[in-house]
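Appendix B, record 7
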Amino acid sequence: MTNSAFIPAILANIPLFREMSPEEIERIAQGTRELHLARGDALFQRGDASTGFYVVIHGQIKLALSSPQGIEKVVELFGPGQSFGEAVMFMDKPYPVYAQALTDSLALHINKNVVFGGIDSDPVFCRKMLAGLSIRLHRLIYHVESFSLRSSTQRVIGYLLQDLEEVQEGLDIHINLPANKNVIASNLNITPETFSRILHNLTDGGLIEVKGKEVRINDVAKLRAHDE
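Structure tokens (predicted):
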């Protein structure tokens, strides 16, 4: 639980705002509100109008699509410190996806009027917004490449190693899966059964160990070099 008095301190530690002056942070805080979400709560629905963008403080939020048959496709997952919704805000278009909390979560909503004012008055803010959108584009290209050029096993390995890019020779590395296997499988465009089978095969090969949502990577270099 937080209090609105602490919003400036929270904003100052988010990468997007880290280089801004206390005065600019305070101005942004005036257009920011807290959103406390219980697991399963919707943040917005597909077709809703955008009034700003969001930053996850704690918890996990998914962006997803649902077919008329009720089949869900998870587009992206966001955790603490990550932001989303900037592109739709700039395009002034309705949301093409819906957002839902996967766990009890706290998010901040930054009003678009505050964002546009910051862009008009602060070139540093503008550059950071562009950098954030560029990161999102890079992530999207990575996903497209994964779906079209990589095998299912390579996708899972890439997912497990996504936050370990700087680790080359790490042994006995522990990571926690941020969501259940169905959600992660949908995000990787594979079935839950395939995801479980790949984890089982990697475990049999001595590359990982899985206990619930905790995955122990026995050797990062070997896992990265693994080929089917």
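Remarks on this record: The chain has two domains: 4-148, 152-225. The mean pLDDT is 85.
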